[in-house]
Amino acid sequence: DAGITQSPRHKVTETGTPVTLRCHQTENHRYMYWYRQDPGHGLRLIHYSYGVKDTDKGEVSDGYSVSRSKTEDFLLTLESATSSQTSVYFCAISGRADYNEQFFGPGTRLTVL
Amino acid sequence: GQQLNQSPQSMFIQEGEDVSMNCTSSSIFNTWLWYKQDPGEGPVLLIALYKAGELTSNGRLTAQFGITRKDSFLNISASIPSDVGIYFCAGQLNGNQFYFGTGTSLTVIP
Question: CA torsion, points A45, A46, A47, A48, in degrees to nearest 10?
Answer without folding.
Answer: -30
